[in-house]
Amino acid sequence: MEHSDSLEFNVELSSYTGSLEILLDLAKAQKVDLEKISITKLADQFHEFITNTKNLNLELASEYLLMATWLTYLKSKLLLPESEEEEFKALEVAEKLKLQLKKLELIRLLSTQMLSRKRLGRDVFMRGSKSGMRSIYDSKYTLTLFEILKSYANIVMTKDFQTMNIPKLPVFTTEDGISRIKDFFGKLNEWKNISELIPGNFKSSSNLKRTGQAGILAGSLELVKEGNVKIKQNNLFEDIYIKEN
């Protein structure tokens, strides 16, 4: 028996501790006293094992169940009086039980395959009859005015949907300011008003001039942090001057 896909079921009883298959072999060979084996404790441990093990393979669980059934049968044979006319054989019972477990697995497999197939009336629809026979069923749909208008509006919106392209606003960014100041490197040996560095296309209106001043100022602060330029302001709210370091 393979245990690669699940943990092995170990029994812990007062007279035995170990795997269930070894206990079964010892019981068959009469090397362990079955009268001291508690079938109730064994059943409780098996129930706890299959309950706590989430990924237990069904075939592996059926083999454990078959071994537990064998032990139960052997102990019952030991406790009950023997009869010469008894036709009940342990091997036949074990084979029948194993066959039933395999049938159960096959039924589950086939049911899963059937449920995954396309269904008539949901995924597959029959063609209309051409023999002139009329259906005795008459389907009627009841809708409110609101539902009709909503469906119509959804169709119209789907057809008339248009993408919106929002034009990019002219903004002089910090990166633009840094690039603009670096273009004047070699010409900033003397103090120069930063407003003179604003590009000509950002001087056409007051709004564009503000974003140009902001971009140049932010760029000059970054270059001061890097140690490339120096800036100064003589008094509060006066013009700011820049000079190459």
What percentage of residues falls in helices of 4 or more residues? 40-55%
Mean pLDDT across every amino acid position: 77
Q: Biggest sheet, in brief? A: 3 strands, antiparallel
Secondary structure: number of strands: 5
Global structural class: mainly alpha
Can you tell me the overall shape?
elongated
- Beta-strand content: 5-15%
Query: Can you count the helices?
Result: 7
Rg, alpha carbons: 44 Å
Q: How far from one another are the termini?
A: 82 Å
Q: What string gives the helices and strands in order?
A: EEHHHHHHEHEE
Low-confidence stretches: 1-6
Instruction: Name the strands of the widest sheet in spatial order.
Output: 3-5-4
Question: Keywords, please?
Answer:
mainly alpha, 245 residues, disordered N terminus, 7 helices, Arc Repressor Mutant, subunit A, elongated, two-stranded antiparallel sheet, 48% helix, three-stranded antiparallel β-sheet
What does this structure look like?
There is one protein chain. This protein is mainly α. Strands 3-5-4 form a 3-stranded antiparallel sheet. It has helices spanning 20-28, 39-52, 58-79, 90-116, 145-159, 174-183, 206-226; strands spanning 10-12, 17-19, 192-193, 229-232, 241-244. Among the domains are: 10-80 and 90-115, no CATH class; 174-244, Arc Repressor Mutant, subunit A (Orthogonal Bundle). It contains 7 helices and 5 strands; from the N terminus they run E-E-H-H-H-H-H-H-E-H-E-E. The chain is elongated. The model is unreliable at 1-6 (pLDDT under 50).
